[in-house]
Amino acid sequence: MIAPVISLRGRDFIDVADLEPGDLRRLLDLARDIKGGRWTERPLQGKHVAMLFQRPSHRTRVSFEVGIARLGGTTTTLSGQDVQLGFRESVADAARVLDRYVDGVVARLRSHADLLLLARSSDKPVINALTDRSHPCQVLADLMTLEEVHGDLAAQRVVYIGDGNNIANSLIEASVLAGFALTVITPPGYDPDAGVVERARSINSGSHHVTLTNQVDVNRATAIYTDVWASMGQEDERAARQKVFAPYQVNQHLMDIAPEAVFMHCLPAHRGEEVTDEVIDGPRSVVFQQAENRLYAQMALMAGLFGA
Ligand code: CP
Ligand code: NVA
């Protein structure tokens, strides 16, 4: 049976935690059917989506543009320089104007607070395409990938190693929603967002858990996930971070400790820093499968959020 479109109409997608477990299930089922060519509807026919990028992007921009076109919609992509949010005009004013032209907004903003303000000021659905706090669209594709490679999400043990950044925060929310065990390993002082962790722990039940540690231990991992040590906007810290993060590199020695684990990375990667060529190009790397699944996971999301 073909998975039905999830009913998210009129809602925003700011964080993974915005979804209910049933939403996630339907979304992943639909994404799988889209990928398998079993679902070819065009619910965005006649709809126009604005995409706003205050930071560089390759995967997110292209996968959204292609996904919207395949769903029958059209796009306008604006750079931060075009709109100059908060400088040329306020976030709220920009949102109110976009509202009058388009049926939905995909926004990659520097500040999560600005994204929340944009979403609050807009009557149209807003999708978070990455902020300093979270990257929920990436993690939807990651969940799809984890299910493809290892099956039941709730049976998995994901180890994230590196900076406690936007990817780490979204993975924490995903572990609560999908019920897998997650260990987040960071250098001291580079923890994930305290609010995200607190919320995850408050809804923790016996079936899943989030562990934060500074000790590198990947025993029994089914996936080892890392990300850049210095995210966009932290370029000035890159040299200092290289020293602090060096013991947290994902290399073959680490992968050998967890023979069942696939290697995951949202990309772009800084090869030779957080991951070695041997690992990212190795047989257990699923990084390009993750990148590909951005397209299908986002199409399933947009069919529910922006669709007719
Ligand atoms: N993973 C990801 O979001 O890539 P881009 O920054 O290139 O969009
Ligand atoms: N943590 C990275 C993710 C890029 C997709 C960044 O924010 O730059």
The CATH homologous superfamily of the largest domain: Aspartate/ornithine carbamoyltransferase
What ligands are attached or bound here?
A: phosphoric acid mono(formamide)ester, norvaline
Q: What is the average per-residue confidence, as pLDDT, rounded to a whole number? A: 95
Q: Mind telling me the C-alpha Rg? A: 19 Å
Report strand %. 5-15%
How would you describe the overall organization of this protein?
The chain folds into two domains: 16-134 and 294-306, 3-Layer(aba) Sandwich (Rossmann fold), CATH 3.40.50.1370; 138-290, Rossmann fold (3-Layer(aba) Sandwich), CATH 3.40.50.1370. It has twelve helices and nine strands. Strand 6 (181-185), helix 8 and strand 7 form a beta-alpha-beta unit. By secondary structure, the protein is α/β, with parallel strands linked by helices. It has helices spanning 21-35, 59-70, 80-83, 91-101, 112-121, 136-150, 166-178, 194-202, 238-245, 252-257, 277-280, 287-305, and strands at residues 48-53, 74-79, 104-108, 126-128, 157-161, 181-185, 210-213, 223-226, 262-265. It is globular and about 55 Å long.
Topology overview:
Blueprint: H1 21-35, E1 48-53, H2 59-70, E2 74-79, H3 80-83, H4 91-101, E3 104-108, H5 112-121, E4 126-128, H6 136-150, E5 157-161, H7 166-178, E6 181-185, H8 194-202, E7 210-213, E8 223-226, H9 238-245, H10 252-257, E9 262-265, H11 277-280, H12 287-305
Parallel strand pairs: 1-2, 1-3, 3-4, 5-6, 5-8, 6-7, 8-9
The structure holds phosphoric acid mono(formamide)ester (CP) and norvaline.
Phosphoric acid mono(formamide)ester is lined by residues 57-60, 130, 138, 266-268.
